[in-house]
C-alpha cells in the first residue's frame, strides 16, 4: 500500500466514490495535511464539484477533476492504492 506522504508534487489520488473521498480525506488529516485554508480535509471534502472525477492533490493542498490532471501530465493513482491503511 502507498502512503499519502510519499506522493510527489505531480501525483494525485483519484476517488471514484464519495466513500473513497471520505476515506482519503481521513488519511490526509491523519498525515497532518490541510487545505490551503488550513481546514482539515474532512471538514469539506469538496466531492460535490467533480463527484466520481474528483482527484486530490496532497502536495498542492487542492483538488480538481481527473481530466485536468491527465491534461497536465500528472501521475494519477486510484484511491484503492491507499485505502488499505484506513482504520475507521
Description:
It is a single chain. By secondary structure, the protein is of the alpha+beta class. The protein has helices at residues 18-30, 47-50, 66-71; strands at 11-15, 54-57, 62-65, 75-78. A 4-stranded mixed sheet has the order 3-2-1-4. Strand 2 (54-57) and strand 3 form a beta hairpin.
Give a nutshell description of this structure:
This protein has three helices and four strands. The protein has 88 residues and is α+β, with helices and mostly antiparallel strands. The chain has a four-stranded mixed β-sheet with strand order 3-2-1-4.
- Basic shape: globular
How many domains make up the coordinates? 1
Portion in strands: 15-25%
Strand arrangement across the biggest beta sheet: 3-2-1-4
Largest sheet report: 4 strands, mixed
- Can you write the helix and strand succession as a string? EHHEEHE
Distance between the termini: 17 Å
Q: How many extended strands? A: 4
Report the C-alpha radius of gyration, rounded: 11 Å
Q: Return the structural class.
A: alpha+beta
Query: Total number of helical segments?
Result: 3
Helix content: 25-40%
Stretches with pLDDT under 50, minimum 5 residues: none
Mean pLDDT: 94
Amino acid at each position: 500500500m502507498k502512503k499519502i506522504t510519499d506522493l510527489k508534487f505531480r501525483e494525485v489520488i483519484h476517488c471514484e466514490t464519495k466513500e473513497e473521498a471520505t476515506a482519503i480525506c481521513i488519511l490526509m488529516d491523519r498525515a497532518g495535511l490541510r487545505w490551503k485554508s488550513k481546514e482539515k480535509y474532512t471538514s469539506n471534502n469538496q466531492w460535490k464539484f467533480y463527484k466520481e472525477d474528483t482527484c486530490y492533490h496532497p502536495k498542492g493542498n487542492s483538488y480538481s477533476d481527473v481530466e485536468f490532471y491527465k491534461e497536465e501530465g500528472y501521475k494519477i493513482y486510484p484511491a484503492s492504492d491507499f485505502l488499505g491503511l484506513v482504520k475507521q
